[in-house]
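Workshop exercise sheet. Pairs work together: one partner reads the sequence aloud, the other fills in the structure field after running the prediction. Swap roles for the next sheet.
Pair: D.N. / O.F.
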Amino acid sequence: MNIGIMGAMTEEISQLLQHISETGRETRGMREYVSGTLRGKKVTIVFSRWGKVAAASTATTLIERYGVNYLIFTGVAGAMDQDLHVGDIVIADTLIQHDMDASALPGIERHEIPLLGISSFKVDSRHTDSARLAAESYLSENLTTDIDVHTLHAFHIHTPRVVTGTIASGDQFIADNQSAHALREQIPALKCVEMEGAAVAQVAHEHGIPYLVIRTISDKANESAAIDFPRFIDKVASRFTCGSVLRLLDLIQHEGSAD
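Structure field:
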């Protein structure tokens, strides 16, 4: 198995790189790909940059250049489900490109990917189950040892939850109530919104490999969305990502595929 780990934030990548037994680095397409062994697994780690095009380009390079056959994408997201709070972790079981709309063409529905004939990408439950178990294990055992109590209180994080559900991606940072309401109307089951995951899902789908998208809720996707964002990434999200991914790798068996 060869696992590609993509991060939407440099801080998340730097946390994971502290644990890798590095075998090589290469810069391609303005990105640094770091290869090596992590928790006994062959991995390549890279900061994807932001947005669907950047994520799709990075995912394709991981597959074509580095032989990756399992993709993990991590980052933060804005909550769409009112029951979600800052610090909760969402594991995608369905991914939708919310800004894809070719419905003006005959026979194509909103969010449908032209020529693929599907409007959403489903994640194998075996992988979402493993990711959820890993994240829950990390939060239950390492939350207060990795993050100081003052930081947890500052972000009102008490007992963060791990949930699975629908994640929507688009090239837009949602930061107002009107846009958030419109997305909830379009996608009633929506848990959270971000800018890359569904693009990675499409690349993985087209190449026939499994994938996971793991997101930490950083905001409510409204007018307060940008408040303390850098601090949250540095002090909370990067540690949630690193801890959850390391435990996930421990659960993945040494096999020739991700099955």
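Discussion prompt: Residues 254-259 have pLDDT under 50 and may be disordered. What would you look at next?
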